[in-house]
Hints:
The complex is a heterotrimer. The longest helix of chain A has 39 residues, at 25-63. Chain A has helices at residues 9-12, 25-63, 74-78, 82-115, 122-135, 139-149, 154-161, 177-201, 205-213, 218-247, 250-256, 263-272, 279-307. By secondary structure, chain A is an all-alpha fold. Chain A has one domain: MetI-like (MetI-like fold). In chain C, 76% of the residues lie in helices and 0% in strands. Chain C is built from 11 helices and no strands. The structure holds adenosine-5'-triphosphate and magnesium ion.
Amino acid sequence: MTTVHPTAEPSAGPVQTGPVVLRGRGRNFLAGIRLGDLLAVAPFVLFAVMFLLLPMSYLVMQAFQAPDGSFTLDNLANLGTPKTIDSFLISIRVSGTSALLGALFGLLIALAIIRGKLPEGIRSTVMTFSGVASNFAGIPLAFAFLATLGRLGLLTIILKTVFGFDLYRAGFNLLSFWGLTLTYLYFQIPLMVLIIAPAIDGLKREWSEAASTLGATKWQFWRYVGLPVLWPNLLGTLSLLFANAFGAIATAYALTGSTLNIVPVLLYAQIQGDVLGNRGLGAALALGMVIITALANVIYLVVRTRAERWLK
Amino acid sequence: MAEEFLRIEKLVKTFGGNAVVKGVDLGFDKGEFVTLLGPSGCGKTTILRMIAGFERPDSGRIVVEGKDISGLNPNQRKIGMVFQAYALFPNMNVADNIGFGLKIAGMARDQREARVEEMLKLIGLAGYGKRYPFELSGGQQQRVALARALAPSPRMLLLDEPLSALDAKIRVSLREQIREIQRELGITTVFVTHDQEEALSISDRIVVLNAGNVEQFGKPFDIYNRPQTRFVATFVGTLNTLNGTVADAGAKTVTLGGSTVTIPALPATARNGEAVALTMRPEAVSLANGAARDIVLDGRVAEVSFLGSVIRLKVDLGGNAISLDTFNDQRTPPPAHGSQVRVGIASSDVLVLGN
Amino acid sequence: MRRGQAWAWVVFGLGALYFLLPLIATFIFSLSIRKSGYTFDAYANVLADPRFQSTLGYSLFIGLCTIVVGILIVVPAAYYVRLRAPKLRPIIEFITLLPLIIPAIVLVFGYIRLYNSSSLLPLTSSFVGTGILLTFAYVALGLPYMYRAVDTGLRTIDVQTLTEAANILGANQMTILARVIFPNIIVAVLSGAFLTLAIVIGEFTIASLLNQPAFGVYMQNVGANRAFEPAALAVISFIITWGAMGMIQLLSRFAPKTARKD
Ligand SMILES: Nc1ncnc2c1ncn2[C@@H]1O[C@H](COP(=O)(O)OP(=O)(O)OP(=O)(O)O)[C@@H](O)[C@H]1O
Ligand SMILES: [Mg+2]
């Protein structure tokens, strides 16, 4: 494996810049840099090609390939079954809802800790906690929510025995759309807080003061200045949150098994049965996922470019 | 004094037990250009922000046109404000920035556009309406900020060190422009600066502040020529101090470097034999002597600084040192370093300042 | 006076409720393995499980490999882009952000197709090969964070001047990078490293599809078969995550405070 230690020995020899005498230094100097530069980026480029670009292109290619290797649109057409369409819709709904709600609540929390004049220390505590919670995803998160809000979860039981309120009778189910969304919010909200907090810090106090001397209420300030200034950031974070939830599988898998057929779970099953299954269909499924997350980012990029005029 | 436009009464503000404004009383007339002048941290911004409504006074009242506005929110006060760092809204172009207050007030679009055009002309930036703030220089941004504050026709304008982020040349031309516009509109203006030259050059009256207290409130001429406290005298302009001894309090005579001079400004409270500090501006001291310059002292030139139209000499009077300004004269070079000179001071120009 | 505004307290309170309740509930749940009273039995069961130890050890090992490989890939590239090719910056940044757009499951799917036993580079056909593949997959997962951390670190030091100074003293590129630049950004690099560790340690999707004996796969397995042990595992995971993030907090105190020039 040449890629494992790409920067180590080979570069040390030839990159001597020879500072001994000034004679010919200019040429050597430049030549040395060229080689050094090459060796500096080579590992990154090699990695990007082998483990990001190539696998992706390969999948895209396969999505348009019939089993005999000829070009076909059948694989994509096969995505049109009600089951697949359903799972895309559920996935988009879960990701969209958890992204929107995560962005909303995250924004509110960020505003509260930055602009709410809360006691010192709360802000840094919340930021640290957000760092932890945004990474507390996957299997253990599912466990935590099962222990809390599952059928036998502590909160469910306490609500039933102490308050006489049966959550599950009332229609709640952790293994459902709303249950999954509620669980996803546990990492979506903190992610939003982490990303948007610096942007809120960038809103100058003078802007809101200037607005109020011009007669604007707090709400009018947010409507005309605060939110428009944050807008590109909000949208960017929103698409990030969307992609984050759209690709997430571990939480859903541990939580719902396969009761909730989101796309990643479908793809997971497809990959596990790859040997038997239709190779092209799996690739098409993967392509569909990437197209959707990419689309979310394109929307963001378009809005951002339009805002670029004043974004400096 | 009902005719005063803005009255500040016994204004007090503390931040966490730290008194920043300590009972300030002031009254400004309508259409007046008043400057709050003082060293950094003396409370200028705090007073301004209390007038604007961003800070609540601990006690005291702020009265505009006879009405106490202390209870109003900033957006109800109809007071325009210009900030040091411009604070233009980055997401709006120049026209939208200027029109913001009008839009909030609910003015119709065509009226608003006309008013924005008018304001752009006023600040000399006609045709810049479509630009965004980041496309403007600092001076241009500050003019837009001024237009934005003035567009809704506020009853008062507050400016907090609006020029200190700009470079020297623009600072001078923009302050003249601000003053011109202020005269044209006749708007009562409170201007904050710590630059004494700026304050002296544009104000109708100046409030000199020190550590949360008003030291003196008066016209630039009086502030400079008749400072009432040592702080004002030293903070505004250069001041010479000569140490003498009271010879005869009744006759208002003081012994100064061996000779006895009469000082009309010697206060009645002075006691014989007491040390006294006599102060005067550099321009009150001259190399000529005569009937008007009745205090005559001999000394040696310690320093000569050629400042252009003015030459500043530092003269060692044996124990006391004195700075004096003489006009440049093309035919007569200034006295050389180390040469003996005789300086004359009019005793009527001498101030005796308490501490 | 920072007494706080009412709405801010309400938001903060609701947020605290949402975020703390599951933690508290999970903790209490994990103690409730006996019919009466609270015990740490669930934890004892988990900790005594040899598979717990071996999978956690394996994941830690892969995590460390990921960090080392990640550093070797990211640091020279980020340095080079800052120093000599700012024009390449958008491209490099775009590539480092790709893993945020491409779901992990798609990525590993691509790997499986590309590096399977019948391909040119049959990484999945041996245990070591699959481990290497897993490591690179994790490098990809951590790439956005690692690159950001390193780039931020480089921004706070004056790369240009440091490099020129070292160049005049006769150091070559490798020496400069290893002896001059790296020690100055070590704190930033370590932050990226701990973040990567936090992401990787309980990762499930990739490890499971590559059939690796990783901690995440083990946890999923326990979840499918036990009732109280999963809660204990959740608490342990949370503590591990907290530890990794706490290290970053701690490290940030040692970050160099050099003024930036650009
Ligand atoms: N919000 C605040 N909280 C605590 N202390 C404050 C606050 N605002 C001002 N101060 C303190 O009050 C004092 C006066 O501040 P102020 O801003 O009024 O000074 P200033 O005269 O405007 O000075 P400068 O010329 O530097 O702007 C300073 O010591 C400052 O530290
Ligand atoms: Mg100030």
